[in-house]
Automatic annotation (TrEMBL):
Organism: Pseudoalteromonas aurantia 208
Domain Fatty acid desaturase per the UniProt entry, residue ranges: 58-315
UniProt entry keywords in alphabetical sequence: Membrane, Transmembrane, Transmembrane helix
InterPro entries linked: FA_desaturase_dom
Lineage start: Bacteria, Pseudomonadati, Pseudomonadota, Gammaproteobacteria, Alteromonadales
Protein name in UniProt: Fatty acid desaturase domain-containing protein
Segments crossing the lipid bilayer: 27-48, 54-74, 86-104, 176-197, 217-234
Amino acid sequence: MSSNLHIQAIVQSIKAEEQSLRSQFPILAYQNMLGVSLLMCAVLAMLLVAGLYAVSYIPAWLCIVLIAFITSISHEIEHDLIHKLYFKRNPVVHNLMMLIVWLMRPNTINPWYRRKIHLHHHKVSGTNQDLEERLVGNGIKNPALRVVSIVDGLLGLIISHRAFKREITGFRFLSIFNAGFPIATVYFGILYGFIIFHSIDGFLYDTATHPTWLIDVMKWVDFLMVVLIAPNIIRSSSLNLVTSSMHYYGGVGNLMQQTQVLNHWVFFPFQLFCFNFGNTHTIHHFLPNQPFYIRQMISGRILPVMKHHGVRFNDIKSIKQANFYSASGLQSDKDM
């Protein structure tokens, strides 16, 4: 079979499984209400966990872990919104949902700008023009720079912007930088302010004296670090690691070669905080206009179909080769 026939067979299987699922569960027809309901549940859960931490009912580490998981759901909702799967004909509700998911994940560029680079990603995935994936470390050979890009998108952008300008058509540093204003700007201000204050305070031990207003401000900064900043560091780092590892960079000739399914046990801790992204995102590349919860529900039946038609699974060797899609054999799980 040619690559096109394999692709068609996979797409047809995905559509058939979705149709079967929708016939079993009529509630799936209410897509707009499901989307907004899932978002409201995520918001309420996030506020509840933050409230429990505020009254010292749960420890900081548990608050961070729970909110990191909750915000991973909001990322999937944003992804669906980018493809206009909810309230496409109601711009007020649609854009309000876009704003909410940005507020829940303030270390990202705004979702309206991300829509532009994400739709472009689908057209140029696997090439040096794929800005969205390159921003999070895809194709980077230097392991130190890759870690920086995965953990701190702003610092990674600053370090790599010269290479992006040379290689990516139409790249403008200020366009990306300004796409974070004002929410991401405030986020990084709080993060770096926290690091600087506590670094200086720790170095000076008990000799430092701070004005009362600064102490009051830092109490809020410390609180926001637990309920918003740290959870999103975990969420975004997990997502960036998984997505930059499962997308190929170079050697890509068709849709079959754009992504691999990454569900090796080594990635399980990170999958928890990116809503099983490595296991299901390849389905999205074959059928973009499908809600995230349907991908999750049909993945158990679709993954064997994709493997049968030649989609790669756990090609760890490619990660070591800066995500290059090689025609040579794969590295098996036993080699891990």
